[in-house]
Write a structure and sequence with these properties.
The chain is mainly α. 48% of the residues lie in helices and 8% in strands.
């Protein structure tokens, strides 16, 4: 049996995500404690996803949306309206900067944005680096088990 982790039964973020982290975390009004600062509840997940992506390097809005979709195991892609709203707001707040090159806007994280990632309990950090491999290994084991079961039938 596969372990519950961020992807299979994750953070209560919509399709494909379930109960994983319980009442201490979520975007639907559960208590967030110090995580509520500086972003508040509105856009909590998307703002942190944006910072996580930009912590890897500068990116365009389309590249950010694509990377968020990959991180969420293709269950969620932010709408352009939501994404660009938060990119503008986070730029105004000083968490990200905008550079223009050949008519494209590139976003990059600022020192203040990195401080948010470093100083806040950041649940997506481990998804990005460590848990993806574990998830893939678990899915491979599951497929092998199901294949064996189907072969016996």
């Amino acid at each position: 049996m596969m372990e519950e982790n961020y992807f299979g039964r994750g953070m209560g973020m919509g399709r494909g995500f379930g109960r994983g982290m319980g009442r201490g975390f979520g975007m639907r009004g559960y208590g967030m404690g110090t995580m509520q600062r500086p972003f508040g509840r509105h856009g909590f997940g998307l703002r942190y996803f944006i910072l996580a992506v930009l912590n890897e390097g500068k990116a365009t809005g389309a590249e950010i949306a694509k990377r968020i979709e990959e991180i969420s195991n293709y269950y969620w892609r932010p709408s352009p309206g939501s994404l660009y709203f938060f990119l503008k707001e986070m730029s105004d707040e000083g968490y990200i900067e905008v550079e223009e090159d050949n008519g494209k806007k590139y976003y990059k994280i600022t020192k203040e944005g990195r401080e948010i990632i470093d100083s806040t309990w950041f649940p997506f950090k481990s998804i990005i680096k460590r848990d993806i491999v574990s998830e893939l290994e678990g899915l491979a084991d599951y497929i092998v088990e199901k294949r064996a079961t189907l072969s016996e039938s």
